[in-house]
Task: structure prediction
Amino acid sequence: MTTSYSESREIFALGAEAVVEGALLAGCSYYGGYPITPSSEIMEGMAARLPHTDDGVFMQMEDEIASIGSVIGASLAGRKAMTATSGPGFSLMQELIGFGCMAEVPFVLVNVMRGGPSTGLPTSPAQGDVQQARWGTHGDHSIIVLSASDVQECLHMTLKAFNFAERYRIPVILLIDEVTAHTREKITVPATTDVEVISRLQPSMPPEWYKPFEETVRGVPPMPPVGSGYRFHVTGLMHDDKGFPTSKPDEVVQALERQFRKVDQFFFDIQVTEEVLCEDADTVVVAYGSVARSAHLAVTQAREEGIRAGLLKLGTLFPFPRSATEHQMRTCKRIIVPEMNMGQISREVKRVNNGRVDVATINRIDGSIITPAQILDKLRKG
Result:
């Protein structure tokens, strides 16, 4: 199911509202959620829009744990499903994120980041959930984490999140921050025929031959809806290719390695990055979310002053875009990583840098945005 638009249209929308548009374009037909600042506008938008689609279902759950549980259930039943949350709600969802990873259930979770930890700064922007998005649930697991820096990107990255979730049969987390979610801008909602919409692979074999976690060339097993005649055993325990619990070392290794391989072998398909004025840059700013907008203006202003600056904007945060980052490190002299936390993506940058170039950081944790002036000042200091 997709919400069909025969022509593109322009709307004046919040980032949160753009997420709703992207989800509907992708064919989302189930939303289970619980309101929490500053993500509530996503839930409100889905509550208003989803029931008016062909088969859309919206449910307000009693809490965040129930919300993500219902999303997993809806996805197993064949729906494209999503939820949205922030801060404490994201923490509550971690156990079932892990269940989704182990059972290879595709869904989209949008986390509108706010100041923390705990209740923190509920109405202020932050980027403190980056490493939690990658490693918040326990155990070795494969997951995809995306980011959006402006309102138009909120639409496109939500659509991309659904496509990745369905293509790779995996949970996908989209991180935006309070500033991006609550910025209102004119955006273009594309016609349905102008966007790629991907749905999960369905089995081609008869039900008696089907194995829900079988080894495939792509590493992604087909996934029929529960109740469609195909046996589908679902568990959070380590399981064999039929879905039944196992502790046999060879089966455990095979299952986990396949879960990682299905993402790793398509690394370049999953990487979303953008280079701005990087061709001859001596200093490259690596940024994501609303901070990337500040960085874009700072780099432009720096160029006007004769400073050879560039911007590497990260749309994919995990798997970390190592190749794009290393490419800049081979030609520039310095990397600057501004982010609204104590240094989370900068750790990834330093890890892949391995001492090749100087890596500087700009960190802000007071609930205010990092301004273009802050970044420009760092660029001027060479």
Summary: The mean pLDDT is 96. The chain has two domains: 9-194, 273-380. The domain at 9-194 is CATH 3.40.50.970 (Rossmann fold). The radius of gyration is 21 Å.
